[in-house]
Amino acid sequence: MESFSAFFILVVCISSVSGDTSSDDGRGNMNVFQKELLVQMKKLSNAQENISRSVDNYDLFRAMSDKIDNLEEENKKLKRGLEILMNNTILEKKRTESNTEKLNALHSFMSSFNIDAMRNISDLEAMIRDNKETLNDIQVSTNGIQIAMSGNISLMDKFRVSHGNILNEVSNSLRDLEITTKTYERFGNDSFAKLEMELNVLSGSLKKLNESSFRFFPKDCQDIQKTFPVSKNGVYRIYPYDSEAANAYCDMTNGGWTVFQRRQNGKTNFYRGWNEYKSGFGSPGDEYWLGNSYIHSLTINRNCTLRIDLTNWDNISRYATYTDFRIENEADNYRLRIGSYSGNAGHYSLSYHNNQEFTTKDRDNDKSSSRHCAVLYTGAWWYNACHHSNLNGDYSVRNDKGVRWWSYPSSDFMKTTTMKLKCT
Ligand SMILES: [Ca+2]
């Protein structure tokens, strides 16, 4: 622009000089030249102006081009950001899916745990109910009622404490589980493994608590006698291992005997089938059979003595004891095992039945292939082929079908019988 102004000033100067000169040819040539110069200068000025405009346009173009470059760079950056974002989204989706699976597994694990816990609690509640029933039984019993009551109340108290401890343990663990679950939701895998470990520890401790709560309960009459040495004869609740609790008649003389068979008046029918002999029948305060499953539980893996007390119809009382007494499990048909004999009732009446399986009117396990001994002699016993004793026979008859002990010196039919065990 500056050069254009200089030209304009020059043109004005030339124009004013031509006005002062007035010679003939020289003036004419001068005028032509002057006009030509003005035209050229005008063209020059126009060209200058165009050049100047072009320079301006070029600057604009350069600026725009730079801006386009910048925009392309920005665009690339955005595109890269978008790709990263998309990848992250896919990863996040996968992570969410796998977390959902883990949460589902966790939920089913926790709900199965809850079922176990509930089952455990309901078992314990059933035990409380059983204990209440026992207390009622004992209240109507005439023998040793006060001792028995105080013994059972003490056991109930211990049980209540144990029950409370288990409930506290469960609720504490559930609270811990909740916290761990929240942690898991935040951090994923590691926390889940920790949670599983915690659950294992928890179920282990529940099992131990359950087992320890059983230790508060007497296994047999001997346990009751040890805990309460002044206990008198009567009906007590016992808890043989591996089987349900049962009511048993306890003979508390000489360290506490658990009576498992008693006959004294013929009120109870003893001609029964396998399942009744398995789980027991009759009234423990009167005539009864404790049950083969309990006798098995009480005698297995222990060193037990069997004592049989008998009184015949002439009121002569005698007894027989056998060491190493046990009966095998149901799979072996509650087979009888006895060791050496002592007493005055004669050994062979039961020794003849040693190592025999139990037979009832609906299960013939005896050694006679031609006869069903239980049916033939209206009893249930460890029949051989068939018997030298039949203490579960028909109380009302005095023949082979009756309550008989062959090796008794005089009359061998019994008015009263008691079979009991004591173990070390
Ligand atoms: Ca047979």
Characterize the structure shown:
This protein has 424 residues and is an alpha+beta fold. It is 55% helix and 14% strand. The protein is built from nine helices and 13 strands. The chain has helices at 2-20, 25-140, 145-187, 189-215, 221-227, 274-279, 292-299, 348-351, 373-376, and strands spanning 234-238, 246-251, 257-263, 281-282, 288-289, 304-312, 317-322, 326-327, 336-337, 341-343, 389-390, 404-405, 414-423. Strands 1, 2, 3, 4, 5, 6, 7, 10 and 13 form a nine-stranded antiparallel beta sheet that branches. The chain has a two-stranded antiparallel sheet with strand order 8-9. A hairpin with a 5-residue loop joins strand 4 and strand 5. It is rod-shaped. The protein starts with a helix and ends with a strand. Residues 1-22 and 138-150 have low confidence and may be disordered. The structure holds calcium ion. Calcium ion binds at residues 364, 366, 368-369, 371-372.
